[in-house]
User: What shape does this take?
Amino acid sequence: MRLADRMQQIQPFFVMDLLARARELEAQGRSIVHMEIGEPDFPTPSPIIEAGRQSLADEKTHYTPALGLPSLREKIAEYYQSEFNLAISPKRIIITPGASGALQLALAVLVNPNDKVIMTDPGYPCNRHMVRLFEGDAINVPVDAESQFQLTPELLDQYWSDDTVAAMIATPSNPTGTRIDKKQMRALIEKMKEQDGLLIVDEIYQGLVYDVENFTALSVSNDIVVINSFSKYFGMTGWRLGWMVVPEALVDAIDRLSQNIFLAPSTPAQYAALDAFSSKSMDIMHARRDEFKRRRDYLLPALKALGFKITAEPQGAFYIYADCSQISNDSFQLSNDLLEKAGVAVTPGKDFGEHKANQYLRFSYTQPIEILQQGVERLTIFIQNSTRGAV
Amino acid sequence: MRLADRMQQIQPFFVMDLLARARELEAQGRSIVHMEIGEPDFPTPSPIIEAGRQSLADEKTHYTPALGLPSLREKIAEYYQSEFNLAISPKRIIITPGASGALQLALAVLVNPNDKVIMTDPGYPCNRHMVRLFEGDAINVPVDAESQFQLTPELLDQYWSDDTVAAMIATPSNPTGTRIDKKQMRALIEKMKEQDGLLIVDEIYQGLVYDVENFTALSVSNDIVVINSFSKYFGMTGWRLGWMVVPEALVDAIDRLSQNIFLAPSTPAQYAALDAFSSKSMDIMHARRDEFKRRRDYLLPALKALGFKITAEPQGAFYIYADCSQISNDSFQLSNDLLEKAGVAVTPGKDFGEHKANQYLRFSYTQPIEILQQGVERLTIFIQNSTRGAV
Assistant: This one.
């Protein structure tokens, strides 16, 4: 069967094979420590679950408007007000089937064939595939620990060309957990204005920041697209619900497109999410954030002590992007060895791009500290054995 | 803000403005009979709702695999076995975020820029927009009551060109409620084989057929893509859950793409849908189908008596596509007049294409018979007045 050309560039996540192999080993009775999963271990907070259950009991199962329940759009606007002291019109807030749906809508209304979109390498792999989906070209800019694995105004200048229409950044970022502070954000937005391109800011890990201020790029500018999600901070991964805030000039086009490609976001998810901003839910989210911080504060020095180099301090999300070159210069092989020989699953750098990918592993701290400790013990033994040449 | 060129062709549903105006009139206290809505008036059957509520109580809120819960894929395979006596491997069954998600996946893995996809005019409007989304060209084939508003082998021959890669059909169809019988299906599939193109069969109204055999195109061939949904027959519109059955050669590409653009379909929706095939749920669905039949059997002769020409008998879905040329030769204006002057909301033909669109209105029978009767009374008075020249 002949496939469309784009399918040659749209790759699976390599970690999927690893996960399948891990499940196989577990079925054989092996214990595996999962540090590869980009999903909180916690279920959805109970007040949100209850709101979802109640809406089902009330038979709220019909379509909502394509842009989402007006009441949910208003709740999100109130959240920007209370959390960031920002007045965002609910009209500019669009509810989507996950942040993935938001990204699809944003790129489909903006990107013509062969248009270029700048993003980081390493970065979230779906971004470049989504640009390819609409026949655009992702420009993968190699970034390193020196710039916190983030774009800079200088890099934007360097990689910009006449057919570049947008740049994407993520703060905190997957896979690095690094963020962009207000000053850097202002400089990036200034540069984008100069280049007359649209900045798309992925804030899906917003709220999951440790020791630093929680802020949104919307406090710097309204002329950007901000993508957010109920998945990570609000613990609603499986519900597939996200949102984006867009300049008012984009709302009509996004409405048209969303009607056609999604009809509407999930109704039960939207009714459940109405409770996501309640004080009861927020208390749970704050406690979880504190727990993620404790995990990071445990795992970060532990990995460093094992010889992983982590020079760009992760300040958010639940990831550590660790340079493993002192242990191996083939992180893909290393991730396979760690699974088979040590029973530890981690994600190889090549899932996030090509730039120095073979030097890096991503560790997720989406497991309780006791499990992370077990993982570290196994890593310790593995590394001791391998430096002795026993592996 | 510069939009992508595709947005010039991706139109909103015209009925959306009409619906907004209807809501406005209702807010002013006017009574409106809604015969424009393409969604069952019934909520999700209670056993399905209960299964969804239970899964939430069990905290099943994490991601599922991109292709869907294995247990749900198996349930659907069992359904093909029990309902159609067909053995379909669960591997070929892919769970999607609505039939919209299925259509997106199917087209994205198949359609290169400028590739052509044949479809009917009139037809479901999102189809041509979805092809445009991926830079393909929809070839809208004018069809009339003579061919039951369906494609024929002759039409396929006539409109096929070297860069045509696929054809789309829908049975029962929106907006016409007409279907394709087994003999016609066989002829279409033969022709597609001859042309070496892929047939995409929309079966989302499957099960909603009256007086005729319920069948699937899969009983004729495995080398086609069949799109189905939990929305219409199973009454799960707001949950956004569908499925498709594809040739095994397409599964890997669709898996890769779904991972990247959706991550996974909704978890609560999938757990709820596990109950969709239970005998309790099926009993409810059968009773609803019988009710839809009663409504059609009432509305069809009533519309004919009013002067609407309906020459292609609707045998499924919940739509009647009525030729209104004896009343008006501008169905768009007529739909507006019916709303404003008669308090009846219907969908204008131009939402479904261009071919004779100004002669047609789509009536949905997604309201109880008493309401439909009220609508018919209002139509009667409106038509009497307008033939007297009073309107």
User: Anything to note?
Assistant: The mean pLDDT of chain B is 96. Residues 124 and 174 of chain B are 6 Å apart (CA to CA).
